[in-house]
Write a structure and sequence with these properties.
Elements: E1 3-7, E2 10-12, E3 18-25, E4 30-39, E5 46-52, E6 57-59, E7 67-72, E8 77-82, E9 91-100, E10 108-111, E11 115-119
Parallel strand pairs: 2-11
Antiparallel strand pairs: 1-3, 3-8, 4-5, 4-9, 5-6, 7-8, 9-10, 9-11
């Protein structure tokens, strides 16, 4: 059974930094894309950043220059380095991964349980 386990959320002051980690475990063949969504109260879930196994990355405009996504493919782990945090970054951050369980199978989305990030003084 595939699991995505997140860590690193918490409370931070505006301008501060946090690092989120997400490790995929279980039996699967490949994790094509891994990344992070977030959902703030009363708002829709939005894609924050993603990275493919080949190294291509995506960032939503609001975090460009402040957040950095990286992957350790050997550990099936994705990281999100967040700096210059703002109160509007406050949200539950969800890790996701496009995984194929075996060679030739389709890629399906898997989700972590979510970790709270609160930016407040």
């Amino acid at each position: 059974q595939v699991q995505l386990v997140e860590s690193g959320g918490g409370l931070v002051q505006p301008g501060g930094s946090l690092r989120l980690s997400c490790a995929a475990s279980g039996n699967f063949f490949s994790a094509f894309r891994m990344g992070w969504y977030r959902q703030a109260p009363g708002k829709q879930r939005e894609l924050v950043a993603a990275a493919t196994i080949g190294g291509d990355t995506y960032y939503v405009d609001s975090v460009k220059g402040r957040f950095t996504i990286s992957r350790d493919n050997a550990k099936n782990t994705v990281y999100l380095e967040m700096s210059s945090l703002k109160p509007e970054d406050t949200a539950v951050y969800y890790c996701y991964a496009d995984l194929a369980l075996e060679a030739g199978a389709s890629f399906d989305d898997y989700w972590g349980q979510g970790t709270q990030v609160t930016v407040s003084s």
